[in-house]
Specification:
CATH class: Alpha Beta
Strand content: 15-25%
Radius of gyration: 17 Å
Distance between the termini: 33 Å
Largest sheet: 8 strands, mixed
Shape: globular
Number of domains: 1
Helix content: 25-40%
CATH superfamily: NAD(P)-binding Rossmann-like Domain
């Protein structure tokens, strides 16, 4: 690392669990973030400030006034811009060393598969059930770790799905595609502004630990957060042997 990097990331270098070796891994990493709204804003901001080498951003939306209550990467003077362009501007202001690749369109399965192929970690920061399943299918197929977050009203959840680990569940084990969940989102139900910051920050924390080579604290657990009572609950995730996505996956390495 150069002198400026040693200064920029000094507080990480002081942590025994990260140090120079872990920070260099972060600097050499590539992360795919799908969704640059409430969850993606804090998640991408912390990944950027922590020095992730390349961020690949995906979102097909434009910045609207109603976003600004919680989507902290975007500003009033960027209304109407694509969210990925707005996010890129904000993230480069935080850390000009970043390499950022933007995709301002809704991705289907093959597109997400291609983008996930080179990623070290994938973050699902979307509010769309169909896209969540496309992301999960790509990560299962490629055995890429997936950090998934969700937030609605005052309720949030975050989980890590990692097919590299024997017995790990995938997103579809918990939320089968056949469930056909209603497309509820914050536009119809509302969301408490700081909640998305809490969940998005948790996603970034888990991703950064994985990138630095630290143990995955979330593996095999779904964390549920109630912002009304400020209480966390932890649920053990069980792999579904009949899961249509990962049920037939066998580990040969």
């Amino acid at each position: 690392m150069e002198d400026q990097q040693l200064l920029r990331y000094a507080r990480h270098l002081l942590l025994d669990e990260i140090g120079i070796e872990g920070q260099e891994k972060i600097l050499a990493s590539r992360v795919l973030v799908v969704g640059l709204g409430g969850l993606g804003s804090p998640a991408a901001a912390y990944l950027a400030s922590a020095g992730v080498g390349k961020l690949v951003l995906v979102d097909d939306d434009a910045v609207e006034l109603s976003n600004l209550q919680r989507q902290i990467l975007h500003t009033t003077d960027r209304l109407g811009q694509s969210k990925v362009a707005s996010a890129r501007q904000a993230l480069l202001a935080l850390n000009p060393e970043l390499h950022i690749e933007c995709h301002a369109k809704r991705m289907g399965g093959p597109d997400l598969l291609e983008l996930a192929r080179d990623a070290d970690v994938v973050l699902d920061c979307t509010d769309n059930f169909t896209t969540r399943h496309f992301i999960n299918q790509a990560c299962v197929s490629l055995q890429k770790p997936l950090v998934s977050g969700a937030a609605i009203r005052f309720d949030g959840q975050v989980a890590l799905y990692d097919m590299r680990e024997p017995g790990s569940a995938c997103y579809a084990c918990l939320f089968p595609p056949s469930d056909n969940l209603a497309p509820d989102n914050c536009a119809t139900l509302g969301v408490f502004a700081p909640l998305v910051g809490i969940i998005g920050s948790m996603q970034a924390a888990e991703a950064l630990k994985l990138l630095a080579g630290m143990p995955a604290g979330l593996l095999g657990r779904l964390l549920l957060f109630d912002a009304r009572t400020m209480q966390w609950r932890s649920m053990k995730l069980q792999k579904n042997p009949d899961c249509p996505v990962c049920g037939s996956l066998n580990h040969t390495h």
